[in-house]
Amino acid sequence: MSAREKPSSGLVGAGILIVDKEAGITSHDVVARCRKLLNTRKVGHAGTLDPMATGVLVLGVERATKLLGLLALTTKAYSATIRLGAATDTDDAEGEVLTSADASQVTDAEIAAIVATLTGDIKQIPASVSAIKVDGQRAHALVRAGETVELAPRPVTVSTFEVLARRDVPGGFVDLDVDVECSSGTYIRSLARDLGRELGVGGHLTALRRTRVGPFTLEHARTLEDLADQPGVSLDIDQGRADGFSASADHGGRSRGDQPGALARADRDEGDLCGDRSHRSHDCASAGEGSTRQFGDGRATGDASRVIVRERVDGDLDGCVDALAQVHECDGYPNTWPQNPHRWLSSPTVVKAWVGESDGRVVGHVAVDSEVAGAPTTAGSIAVSRLFVHPGSRGNGLSDALLDAVTDFAAESRLELVLDVVDDALPAIALYERRGWVYVDERLADWTRTDGVRPVERRYRLPL
């Protein structure tokens, strides 16, 4: 370690650090370097960048690691270069070429037509070399072990996909410089792959730079070299909270209204945003006031998108699995992806379930269960389980609305509600206590995080 990389003397104040990641290192490498430079183990990052990518990486330092999951970080912007004329096994320039074709005859009009089909609300198959878990293992690990991985399409939003420049390259290739703005969970490599495939010539990503995550842009960012010269955070915890929360209206991200509870952890696995979860209730719950209103047969939130909460029917299960997959990608919940997610959602122990629906798409879910922590609930009680909200639908009080449905059902059935929540899920705990839930006790969980640690779970009940 060079002299300039020695840990800073004394403690660094809590806050948000925006790093301009260089190419060739992982997001976890950045975290490790920052831990040394800032002389603290308490550093975590929100979202990952591929090693080849550069640009904005948002980190939390000290107490601000708990803040990352509360910020409006669900929209992202990128500048990228797509090469038409070759498809690779990783959908980027680091993979082996699978097919090639002369792309020089592809017209600008043809490119524009396909780009239009890849813009808006689309179903995207994630890149196989990704951090998505398949039967408990990362997809990229399975691919590198020689296994074939087939990932299901997932709903994403590409709000902007603009071709800025075209360059014809010797060898029959065409390079496109593009700008993309999209929801969390969108793979730019997949856009490159799909554009090339639909044009019939193949395509892959050759360069990627993230220019914005939520409200944080390259203007906020510091290189690791800059940080070595002058260790410190970009924004103190109060300013980071103010900027992150106020940006939700501008960028469509989540705000105080609907937050994941077990937030970014300094010791989590690469690719996890909000830490590990058990197979029980997901703590993507609101830490603030969520307004709801009744109409028709459903409950709609006060948001203009009119998210309706209604009882789940069999036809909702595919949509529930799609939403759960996005939550798993974003937050790591469930801790281990179930082999049969349809069966997991409709377990025989599930007594009743509700969904949040927006524009005909499932964006949230909650159930009541006859078991808690793997054991039957006591007489006269029932457990809240499988509570999750799509990352793109947080910030409109949907968690509150889903819990309202559960509470109404319990009141009508004269049942006491119980639930378990990990003890570091502070926003979720704040929500439950605000809603009148009462702390009962706590114990080591009967499941482990991916780092092998058994977290502590608190038991809460909602009296009749």
TrEMBL record:
Residues 274-283 have a biased composition (Basic and acidic residues). One of its GO terms (molecular function) is RNA binding. Residues 307-463 form the N-acetyltransferase domain. Keywords: Isomerase, tRNA processing. Belongs to the pseudouridine synthase TruB family. Type 1 subfamily. Gene3D superfamilies: 3.40.630.30, Pseudouridine synthase. It holds the Pfam family TruB_N. It catalyses: uridine(55) in tRNA = pseudouridine(55) in tRNA. InterPro entries: Acyl_CoA_acyltransferase (IPR016181), GNAT_dom (IPR000182), PsdUridine_synth_cat_dom_sf (IPR020103), PsdUridine_synth_N (IPR002501), tRNA_psdUridine_synth_TruB (IPR014780), TruB_C (IPR032819). One of its GO terms (biological process) is mRNA pseudouridine synthesis. Responsible for synthesis of pseudouridine from uracil-55 in the psi GC loop of transfer RNAs. PANTHER family: PSEUDOURIDYLATE SYNTHASE TRUB1, TRNA-PSEUDOURIDINE SYNTHASE. Its EC number is 5.4.99.25. This is tRNA pseudouridine synthase B. It comes from Rhodococcus erythropolis (Arthrobacter picolinophilus). The gene is truB. Residues 230-303 are annotated as: Disordered. The active site is at D50 (nucleophile).
